[in-house]
Design a protein that fits this description.
Elements lengths: L2 H17 L5 H9 L7 H25 L5 H18 L2 H15 L3 H31 L1
Helix pairs in contact: 1-6, 3-4, 3-6, 4-5, 5-6
Length: 140
């Protein structure tokens, strides 16, 4: 495939991630840290985020089924998740974390469960989109 075309596709996909609200300025700050010495820096940070978030998702799932529900523990897990999401610029995931934490504060387990499902959906969607983005970027 033509390199110029690939670069155009990468730029278009990147722009769409911002335009659709999946990413925010923090992602650009990560990109600014990437250089020739570490050309895969952003992808490595995002991969690390997905490893950490998988652990947190599991912990949250376990805490949601525990009785009585420990809203403090849930909030702590989600605080960590929100921080990780913020650090890579995962805007929609971060917003879902905020919604979950609001339900935690009001001790609304049904709201927590609904917002957690939304968070997992946003997480999976962003992961697919970023995997496509990084795959194209490697080819370009």
């Amino acid at each position: 495939m033509d390199k110029k075309y690939l670069h155009h596709q990468v730029a278009y996909l990147r722009k769409s991630l911002f335009d659709q609200g999946f990413l925010d300025d923090q992602f650009m700050q990560l990109e600014d840290l990437q250089d020739d010495a570490n050309p895969n820096f952003v992808e490595e940070i995002v991969t690390s985020f997905y490893s950490d978030s998988a652990r947190l998702i599991h912990s949250i799932e376990q805490a949601l089924v525990g009785r009585p529900v420990d809203f403090g523990k849930l909030d702590d897990y989600m605080h960590q998740y929100k921080g990780s999401s913020s650090s890579i610029g995962a805007k929609k995931v971060k917003m879902a974390c905020i919604q979950f934490r609001e339900y935690c504060c009001s001790r609304n387990i049904e709201g927590c469960i609904r917002s957690f499902q939304q968070l997992k959906q946003e997480h999976a969607t962003l992961r697919r989109k970023l995997e496509t983005y990084f795959q194209l970027a490697r080819q370009a």
